[in-house]
Every structure is written in C-alpha cells, then in structure tokens.
Amino acid sequence: MSIRVEDIEITYRIVGSKHVFTSPDVPALHVSHADKNVAYADIQPALDALERIEARIRARHEQEHFLEVA
Questions:
Q1: What is the pTM of this model?
Q2: Beta strands in the chain (DSSP E)
C-alpha cells in the first residue's frame, strides 16, 4: 500500500531560509528546500523512497529470520 501525500497530515514551517515539510503520520519524513514549491513537490518522491527503504529492511529481516530457522 502506497502512502499518498493526500492521505497524511503535512506540517509546514520556515527554518532559516528553508521551507520545511514534515508529518506526524510519517516521522521519518523531512523535506526542505529554499523554494517552497520545490520542497512541496519533493514530498511524494520522499514518501516513495521511504517506502522502498522500509520494504528492503523488511525483506532483509525476513531473509535473516528464514536463514536462522533453516
């Protein structure tokens, strides 16, 4: 199941000269850029990347568990 930006709460703040987007629903999400529109456009690709990372971690854990049982 894919996490969509439309389905989560997004918080926005300015930190120094950066526009920062985070989400309490996805604690690992942190996107920032000097251009607000660029930062916002990067949210979905960041969510997709986080999902790919989580899937790799899950697969590695399952493989290690399988090897321990075998």
A1: 0.83
A2: 11-15, 18-22, 30-33
Positive or negative, the CA dihedral 64, 65, 66, 68 is positive
- CA 48 to chain CA centroid, Å, is 7
1: pLDDT confidence band, cut at 50, 70 and 90?
Answer: low
Bin 16: left if φ > 0, else alpha if -120 < ψ < 50, else beta.
Answer: left
Q: Are 14 and 5 in contact (CB under 8 A)?
A: no
Pick 5-69's CATH classification: 2.60.40, 3.30.450, 1.10.287, 3.30.160.
3.30.160
